[in-house]
Specification:
mainly beta, 18-stranded antiparallel β-barrel, 5 helices, 47% strand
Length: 463
């Protein structure tokens, strides 16, 4: 007869043997798992299994295990999954019609259909993300004798290009470094996105955004090197120097460094662009707003640009210098905004904007009003309709003076813009825009230019 101790030992052994049997692969093959109504997200605690023998008691933590993920490989997998889960897609469809009748009675006309498809991942290991964007513009209508709208490639040809391929590194939560081909926005290097596809650049660029919350002043800083540019209607990236107009074979990039300070309704910033042997451009802009009531605000702004040749002066083969200053006042009341602006250009040559839209206060749909010796006044009135959500309209007039060159003449321009960005309903994501400009050029014989544009953009709401 077994003793009581022997019986207890046999019972414990039987229980242990049954537990092992239940956990064996053979038993697992015959076990069924009841279906779940929805998937359960797996957490780090769910997947953690102690794989090394340890004498640490359950519920305790040794110092060498502090502050670290339990399983490094699992942590890497988790952050990778999160980066893919946080990927943002950007899809836009564009249709653009442009008809321009020029001063010399020639014309440019085209109708294009295209758009863009791009993505940007979340941050792998909370540090690195990458993205890419492809662009296309295809001809719907384009007479060969009316080329030059910049909606299509030269010869009224359609094009498709991978305009953005880049990596973005988070240095910390306020600072990031971008390397690759991407669109950027600064006063003299920007997307200039006023046709079917934007400018993009091959660059390495540091950007930082500091403060700006809890009543603190905001600092924006940036600096880097722009090596190449893809113009709006091109498939090719070319040297920044070549795009500026330097002789073939000239390979020069642009160094840029700038900062902007903002506190309340006051802001001031400056940026410098330097391209060795090509050009140096300095730009500064300040703005101050004065609230005048619950719905009324008056804002004043000043700007200054200076451009000079540098080094071997490869751009024109000789030295040059030009500058422009401008002032602007805006009065906003409810949905209405009234603007008055003045600019004055001087030096010994016209101002240049080789890599972007021009930032002058009187630069409008067709003319920039930045020729040597030219001054210009602008009056503008805009209104956002409260009873039609997303609908707005504006009209403006710019009166320019005679420039310094005896072969060029004074111009004035009238613009009208009406648009509706559908905010909700089954048309949500659609933008309809109509723009018309009429430019009159004085001279021995008065000539005119008419520019009509019709755009339809669609951004799918789910992207």
């Amino acid at each position: 007869m077994k003793t009581r101790r022997e019986a207890r030992f046999a019972q414990a052994a039987a229980i242990a043997w049954m537990a092992c049997a239940l956990a064996s692969p053979a038993h697992a093959q015959t076990t069924t798992v009841p279906p779940q109504s929805e998937p359960v997200e797996e957490t780090e605690d769910d997947v953690y299994v102690e794989t090394q023998p340890s004498s640490t008691e359950q519920g305790q933590t040794r110092m060498n295990e502090a502050f670290a993920p339990r399983d490094r490989a699992q942590w890497i997998r988790d952050t990778r999954r999160k980066a893919f889960r946080d990927t943002k897609w950007d899809v836009q469809v564009r249709s653009f019609y442009l008809d321009r009748e020029k001063y010399d009675d020639t014309g440019s006309e085209a109708w294009a259909l295209g758009g863009s498809l791009g993505f940007k991942t979340g941050y792998f290991r909370d540090r690195f993300a990458f993205g890419a964007t492809g662009y296309t513009s295809q001809e719907l209508y384009g007479p060969e004798d009316r080329d030059g709208t910049l909606l299509l490639a030269p010869g009224q040809e359609g094009y498709t290009v991978l305009g953005e391929v880049y990596g973005e590194f988070l240095i910390n939560e306020d600072s990031r470094l971008t390397l690759g081909r991407r669109g950027f926005d600064t006063p003299y290097i920007n997307r200039n996105d006023a046709r079917m596809t934007p400018n993009t650049f091959q660059a390495v660029l540091f950007q930082g955004l500091y403060g700006g919350d809890e009543g603190r002043p905001e600092w924006r800083v940036g600096g880097g090197y722009f090596d190449k540019i893809k113009e709006r209607n091109s498939e090719d990236f070319v040297s920044m120097a070549k795009d500026a107009g330097a002789p073939d074979g000239t390979e020069r990039g642009v160094y840029a460094l700038g900062a902007n300070y903002k506190s309340g309704d006051f802001s001031f910033g400056a940026i410098n662009y330097y391209s060795n042997d090509i050009i140096n451009i300095f730009y500064a802009e300040g703005k101050y707003g004065i609230p005048m009531g619950e719905k009324t605000k008056l804002t004043f702004a000043l700007q200054y640009s200076d451009q000079t040749s540098v080094g071997d002066e490869l751009l024109r083969g000789t030295d040059f210098s030009s500058d422009q200053w401008g002032a602007k006042a805006e009065l906003a009341h409810g949905g209405a905004m009234f603007t008055a602006a003045y600019t004055d250009a001087g030096g010994d040559t016209n101002m240049q904007n080789p890599w972007s839209g021009y930032p002058g206060f009187t630069s409008v749909q067709v003319e920039d009003f930045n020729r040597d010796g030219e001054s210009a006044w602008m009056l503008r009135a805009g209104y956002t309709f409260p009873w039609i959500k997303g609908a707005s309209v504006y009209a403006l007039y710019v009166d320019g003076s005679d420039p310094q060159s005896p072969t060029e003449y004074a111009k004035d321009e009238y613009d009208v813009n009406a648009q509706w960005a559908v905010p909700d309903g089954f048309l949500k994501g659609l933008l309809f825009r109509m723009r018309y400009a009429h430019v009159r050029q004085q001279g021995p014989v008065e000539t005119t230019l008419d520019d009509f544009r019709l755009m339809v953009y669609y951004d799918p709401p789910n992207f």
